[in-house]
Every structure is written in structure tokens, then in C-alpha cells.
């Protein structure tokens, strides 16, 4: 090998790590879940002004998708219990976005066995929506597969959020991913529902999902909760490994401990298509003023349910009580 070729090889090897951190991956798609996941803290009762502000901020910021809420069944309804974003009727969606003149795509989440999807999800030609995201626990995969096919046949992009992955056995996960890989979904998400994944487990799961997804021509995604202050860190792990669908919310607004904060994520991605300023304004003027009422974000009760790999419902109830209990008593009550 000549001195010139040796120098060239050395130079190239030095450039690669640098380029890895100062460039960006254009295949990445960022999904804003602020109104959908945040709605779990107020029964989806956001004022139109809040939803419009989030829509405008995400659009101006160059976010790829905004998830406006759920397509939940309306057959058993307690009048006034839930707001419009529990159901995302077409008239409510269009009241906010009109015909969606922005380049940002719009999405809803449909829970397996909780959605009258045949009737309530209209054909794509009749809706302002672009994507239907099916959420399912491992036992609900047969229903999820039918929901994905139904939405796909109606003209929508589709993804699957496989819920509570931290509770799924290895055998069941392997079988479930095999079935989902054969579906019409364009992406399958690692969902840390209880915010319990440490980096080594997040890495292991993302690698597993990527192996299955890439073989089937699909993408892998990451949806992280922040019970152990690791939502952003685990999202970064997923990015580095090759996951291209990433969920985040403004100021981390979401159920319980909340989600990966959008402002951290798009600041990390380096992609010039994303503009941080509209997100910062919306966080300051719209989202943060709701924190004292909605009580989301990292806190000791959510940390404890995270340690136990449990749903945060007990912590949510503890924090919402008019007379706050003692954290040590809460610890003892759940650690039995």
C-alpha cells in the first residue's frame, strides 16, 4: 500500500465518526403526540385554541406527523366525560386544521378492541387524516392485524404500537413481531409504556425490531415514557441504531411521567428542516401553563411505578388526590 493510499484511508476513517454526529438522516420521521398522549391527563378535554396552537407550532417547526387524538368507540359514552380528542370525528378535526394546507401529515391512534374502526374510520378520500396508528397489547394482535388491513385498504398509512413491551415474554414477542411484519403496517414501534427500559434493554429491543422490520421492508419506531428520566436517552439509542419513526411531545406532555420532549429531540437531530423556535414558543405560552393542573412529568410516584414495571395509574391517582399522601406510605402500598 502506498503512502498516499494509507493517508487517504486514515483520513476517511477519521471523517466517518465526525460526519455521524454533524450530519442528519433524512429518513427519520418525527411524530408529535402532544394532544393524543397528553389527553390521557385531562380526558382529552383540550380547548380548540390549545389544539390549534400545537398544530401551528408543529407545522411551522417542520414536524412530519401530528397525532390529534384517538378514534375511540362512542357506543358507551358518559356525556361530558371525554373531550373531542377521544373520538376525533371528522368535523372536529376540520374545525382545527381545515383541509390541512400544511405539508405535515395528520394521524390518529386506534386502540385494539376499543375502536369501532369499520364505521368510525372513514375512507381516506373522505378524511383529512393521513395515517392510522394501531395500538395493541400482545394478546390483541389478531384484532390489530385486521385494523391495520382495514385502514390500509381505506387508503391510510399505518403503523403498530405494540404496547407494554417490558411485560412481553421473549417467545410471545418473537411470534408477535413475525405476525406484524407480515401486515400492511409501514412501521412497528417499541413502546416503553411504563417507562422502565434501561439503555441495554432499549438497545436489545430496537435491534430485534429492526432485524424483523428491515427484512420485511418496514421501519422501526420508538415511543418512550419518562418514569426513570430515560425517555430522551432511549430515543437517542433508537436513533443511533437505525429506528426512523420517533414519537415526542411538546415539553414531554403525556400520560404520567410524560414522553420524550420534542424540543430535545429536534434539537438533537440536526436536520435543518426542523425549526426549534415555534416549539419553544408553544411550550412557553401554551403547554407549560397547563402543568400545575395536569401534573405530568418526572416525579417520585411515577419513578416508583417505573421501578415496578407497572402502569402508572396508582401514581396518577396519588398525585391527583386533593390531600396529597406521604410518599413513603405510597411506596409501602405498592411495594407489597
| Unreliable sequence segments | 1-18
Q: Give the number of domains.
A: 2
> From N to C, what is the helix and strand string?
HEHHEHEHEHEHEHEHEHHHHHH
Summarize the biggest pleated sheet. 8 strands, parallel, barrel
Average pLDDT for all residues? 93
Instruction: Indicate the CATH class of the largest domain.
Output: Alpha Beta
CATH topology heading of the largest domain: TIM Barrel
Number of helices: 15
* Structural class by sheet pairing and helices: alpha/beta
Q: How far is it from the N-terminal to the C-terminal residue, by CA?
A: 67 Å
Give, in spatial order, the strands making up the sheet with the most strands.
Answer: 1-2-3-4-5-6-7-8
How much helix, percentage-wise, in residues?
40-55%
* CATH homologous superfamily designation of the largest domain: Aldolase class I
**Roughly how many Å is the radius of gyration?**
21 Å
* Fraction in beta strands: 5-15%
Task: Specify the CATH architecture of the largest domain.
Answer: Alpha-Beta Barrel
**Overall 3D shape:** globular
Structural key phrases:
336 residues; TIM Barrel; alpha/beta; 8-stranded parallel barrel; disordered N terminus; globular; 45% helix; single chain; 8 strands
Question: How would you summarize the topology of this molecule?
Answer:
Layout: H1 3-22, E1 29-32, H2 34-38, H3 48-61, E2 65-70, H4 90-97, E3 105-111, H5 117-120, E4 131-136, H6 141-153, E5 157-162, H7 170-181, E6 187-192, H8 199-215, E7 219-224, H9 231-241, E8 245-248, H10 262-269, H11 276-287, H12 291-294, H13 300-307, H14 313-320, H15 327-334
Parallel strand pairs: 1-2, 1-8, 2-3, 3-4, 4-5, 5-6, 6-7, 7-8
Helix pairs in contact: 3-11, 8-9, 13-14, 13-15
Amino acid at each position: 500500500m502506498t503512502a498516499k493510499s494509507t493517508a487517504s484511508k486514515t483520513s476517511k476513517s477519521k471523517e466517518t465518526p465526525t460526519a455521524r454526529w454533524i450530519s442528519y438522516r433524512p429518513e427519520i420521521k418525527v411524530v408529535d403526540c402532544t394532544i393524543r398522549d397528553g389527553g390521557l391527563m385531562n380526558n382529552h378535554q383540550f380547548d380548540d385554541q390549545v389544539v390549534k396552537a400545537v398544530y401551528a407550532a408543529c407545522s411551522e417547526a417542520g414536524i412530519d406527523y401530528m397525532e390529534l387524538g384517538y378514534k375511540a368507540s362512542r357506543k358507551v359514552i358518559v356525556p361530558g366525560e371525554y373531550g373531542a380528542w377521544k373520538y376525533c370525528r371528522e368535523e372536529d378535526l376540520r374545525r382545527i386544521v381545515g383541509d390541512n394546507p400544511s405539508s405535515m401529515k395528520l394521524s390518529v391512534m386506534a386502540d385494539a378492541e376499543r375502536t369501532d374502526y369499520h364505521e368510525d374510520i372513514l375512507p381516506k378520500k373522505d378524511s383529512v387524516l393521513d395515517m392510522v396508528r394501531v395500538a395493541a397489547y400482545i394478546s390483541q394482535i389478531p384484532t390489530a392485524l385486521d385494523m391495520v388491513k382495514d385502514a390500509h385498504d381505506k387508503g391510510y398509512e399505518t403503523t403498530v404500537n405494540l404496547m407494554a413491551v417490558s411485560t412481553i415474554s421473549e417467545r410471545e414477542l418473537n411470534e408477535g413481531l413475525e405476525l406484524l411484519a407480515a401486515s400492511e403496517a409501514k412501521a412497528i414501534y417499541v413502546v416503553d409504556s411504563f417507562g422502565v427500559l434501561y439503555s441495554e434493554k432499549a438497545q436489545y429491543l430496537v435491534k430485534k425490531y429492526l432485524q424483523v422490520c428491515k427484512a420485511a421492508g418496514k421501519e422501526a419506531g420508538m415511543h418512550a415514557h419518562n418514569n426513570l428520566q430515560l425517555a430522551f436517552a432511549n430515543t437517542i439509542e433508537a436513533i443511533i441504531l437505525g429506528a426512523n419513526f420517533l414519537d415526542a411531545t411538546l415539553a414531554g406532555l403525556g400520560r404520567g411521567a410524560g414522553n420524550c420532549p420534542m424540543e430535545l429531540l429536534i434539537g438533537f437531530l440536526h436536520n435543518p428542516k426542523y425549526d426549534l423556535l415555534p416549539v419553544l414558543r408553544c411550550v412557553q405560552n401554551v403547554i407549560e401553563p397547563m402543568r400545575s393542573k395536569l401534573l405530568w412529568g418526572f416525579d417520585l410516584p411515577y419513578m416508583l411505578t417505573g421501578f415496578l414495571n407497572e402502569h402508572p395509574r396508582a401514581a396518577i391517582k396519588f398525585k391527583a388526590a386533593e390531600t396529597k399522601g406521604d410518599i413513603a406510605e405510597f411506596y409501602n402500598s405498592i411495594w407489597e
